């Protein structure tokens, strides 16, 4: 079956540091890939997505590239801010690019210190 | 983005009682809603998929008689945990999609922390 593995947290960084949160997946076919973010007290929000190999999703300075050869979708940001502190979830959807019945990783708690 | 509201955000109930959790799409019609459960330090696990006006489809290992899902309208789905036990204590979260608009974005509620004592 499908599965998503992402790095365990919490990850603590200083402001303006470079961020990488690793995410690898196991799936049949060509799934769509997502990163969701959950700020304290709020629901999950879509951060970015990629629906086919070599696509790069980007939003709010975050980027992730769909690498089929390494089955990865690592999240990166060049300079993090305190406001980026949240829990980040990598997720896998179906091959049609849909967000139906997503398979999630465990989430990575990111803490940015001033 | 679209707004999905989940209520209550926290609930504590006694063992053996039933608890209802509501998931509402406030500004769009949700043709399909999903219910997830998250245990501490674990992934969100899909429990069931519900399409408006039809019976929910449950994932393997999820008891349909224990977790009753109703999706009677395009803006409301409910999850009722029947005869709750302490092992049902978890974080429950819903998401919603309008298949007619876009299949690639699901909108999530804030989640409900259920504690069964």
Overview of this protein structure:
The complex is a heterodimer of chains A (114) and B (117). By secondary structure, chain A is mainly β. Chain A has strands spanning 3-6, 11-14, 19-21, 23-26, 33-38, 45-50, 56-59, 62-65, 75-77, 86-92, 103-104, 108-113. In chain A, the strands form three sheets. In chain A, strands 2, 5, 6, 10, 11 and 12 form a six-stranded mixed beta sheet that branches. In chain A, a hairpin with a 6-residue loop joins strand 5 (33-38) and strand 6 (45-50). Chain A is globular and about 40 Å long. Chain A starts with a strand and ends with a strand. The mean pLDDT of chain A is 92. Chain B has strands at 4-7, 10-13, 19-25, 32-38, 44-51, 57-58, 67-73, 76-81, 90-98, 102-108, 112-116. Chain B is 0% helix and 56% strand. Chain B is globular, with a radius of gyration of 13 Å. With 117 residues, chain B is an all-beta fold. In chain B, a hairpin with a 5-residue loop joins strand 4 (32-38) and strand 5 (44-51).
Give the tags.
heterodimer, A: 114 residues, mainly beta, 6-stranded mixed sheet, 4-stranded antiparallel sheet, 0% helix, B: 117 residues
List the helices and strands and how they pair.
The complex is a heterodimer of chains A (114) and B (117).
Chain A (H helix, E strand, L loop, with lengths): L2 E4 L4 E4 L4 E3 L1 E4 L6 E6 L6 E6 L5 E4 L2 E4 L9 E3 L8 E7 L10 E2 L3 E6 L1
Parallel strand pairs in A: 2-12
Antiparallel strand pairs in A: 1-4, 3-9, 5-6, 5-10, 7-8, 8-9, 10-11, 10-12
Chain B lengths: L3 E4 L2 E4 L5 E7 L6 E7 L5 E8 L5 E2 L8 E7 L2 E6 L8 E9 L3 E7 L3 E5 L1
Parallel strand pairs in B: 2-11
Antiparallel strand pairs in B: 1-3, 3-8, 4-5, 4-9, 5-6, 7-8, 9-10, 9-11
Short description:
The complex is a heterodimer of chains A (114) and B (117). Chain A has 114 residues and is mostly beta strands.
């Amino acid at each position: 079956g499908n599965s998503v593995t992402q790095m365990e947290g919490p990850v603590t960084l200083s402001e303006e540091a470079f961020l990488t949160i690793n995410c690898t997946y196991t799936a049949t076919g060509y799934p769509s890939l997502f990163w969701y973010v959950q700020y304290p007290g709020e629901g999950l929000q879509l951060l970015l997505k990629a629906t086919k190999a070599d696509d790069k999703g980007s939003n709010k300075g975050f980027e992730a590239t769909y690498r089929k050869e390494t089955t990865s979708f690592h999240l990166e940001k060049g300079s993090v801010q305190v406001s980026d502190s949240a829990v980040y979830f990598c997720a896998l959807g179906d091959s049609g690019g849909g967000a139906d019945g997503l398979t999630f990783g465990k989430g990575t708690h990111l803490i940015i210190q001033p | 983005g679209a707004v999905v509201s989940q209520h209550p955000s926290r609930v504590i109930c006694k063992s053996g009682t039933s608890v209802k959790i509501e998931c509402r799409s406030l500004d769009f019609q949700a043709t399909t809603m999903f219910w997830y459960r998250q245990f501490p330090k674990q992934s969100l696990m899909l429990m069931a998929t519900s399409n408006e006006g039809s019976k929910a489809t449950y994932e393997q290992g999820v008891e349909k008689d224990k977790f009753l899902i109703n999706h009677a309208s395009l803006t409301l789905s409910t999850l009722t945990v029947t005869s709750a036990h302490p092992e049902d204590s978890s974080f429950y979260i819903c998401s919603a999609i309008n298949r007619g608009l876009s299949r690639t974005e699901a909108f999530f509620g804030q989640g409900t922390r259920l504690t069964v004592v």
